[in-house]
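Lab notebook: predicted structure, single chain.

Context: the supervisor wants predicted structures on file for every construct in the current expression panel, including those that have not yet been purified. This is the next one on the list. No modifications to the sequence; it matches the entry in the shared construct table.
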Amino acid sequence: MKNVHGALLGAAALLLSTPSLAQTALTIATVNNGDMIRMQGLTSDFTSKNPDITVKWVTLEENVLRQRVTTDIATKGGQFDVLTIGTYEVPIWAKKNWLVPLDKLGADYDVADLLPRIKDAVSVSGKLYAAPFYGESSMTMYRTDLFQKAGLTMPENPSWDFVISAAKKLTDKEAGVYGICLRGKAGWGENMAFLTAMANSYGARWFDEKWVPQFDKPEWKKTLATYVDLMKEAGPPGASSNGFNENLALFNAGKCAMWIDATVAASFVTNPKDSTVADKVGFALAPNAGLGKNANWLWAWNLAIPAGSKKVEAAEKFIAWATGKDYAKLVASKEGWANVPPGTRTSLYQNPDYLKVAPFAKLTLASIDAADPNKPTVQPVPYVGVQYAAIPEFQGIGTSVGQQFSAALSGSTSVDAALSAAQASTEREMKRAGYIK
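Prediction complete. Output recorded below exactly as produced.
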């Protein structure tokens, strides 16, 4: 009887403690990376300030997240109240009226504090359609000790010629040290993020102003041939399987003299817990070929509200909390300033506490500022996006081209054959989608 009595009392207590507030339950779809997982751990800060809102997380690997969220928004499924989306999706979805404009984030949100490049990437016609959670560009990370030993000095704005000759000089295959580590794993967000940014610096572009693919042009030939030759001579074995994570592990193990990749890696390579070379890393801009464009991309993970949501007001409150200035202070108080989400607000790059622990801050900001999604290439283009073209077809096209280029790197096809296959498959898709006749 005692148990039944206890259970009844427990049930009564539960009834009494139920808040009289009408609860709004938000379902948030997000990507399973470190910054987002940290945000989930801090959710109680939001719910304690908003006792009428509860939060349910759906955390997914990047490719799965993209698929689930795209399906849900396209079919108006209404599964999610807040979406985590990239700069790629924002302009496409906003133009389809799939997103709620974020013009009610509160007076203290300070939209003017958002970094101009990132703000533009998540705005359409001057209206914000997603709020940036963290932003990145890419840059050159290098081993200061190896450079010193070889008598080399890395310029702050290096040319490809300098990087290539330094990579060859610094390669010591017997000692297991490679002059350069670059992405080779196939994927529109893996090897093609790097190769498209490199191609931009060499004067290449995905499409001309009439949407005709450009892989049969000399600029792409120069880009791919330079990359393949460089990696054969100065890159690690098996590079065609290496993406961001594999190269990060190689660099942290002391196997790479240089690595050109996401600015977000800077805090990992300088963290003595992760990196065996933490105190020997220098930073420079991504290289250029003297044509006025550096090989650096622009990306942000952002929070957005799907159109037709029944919980817009609660969703706006959550987004304002997660991407506002106070969130950075909250993370800093728990994890230290070095772990604050980077690349979204001017104020962070003026904060002495952050600058003191982030030796890479200045270069990260300069790299973000140098990338222009509206003028990504030397010649004019009809698309928006630095390391991608913001059209719905790009995911498929980019991955298919990435497979050809990865095959050229592994030696299973030639540079010429890879370019001609990329041209043919991209032309076919662009015709099918009605961009070209």
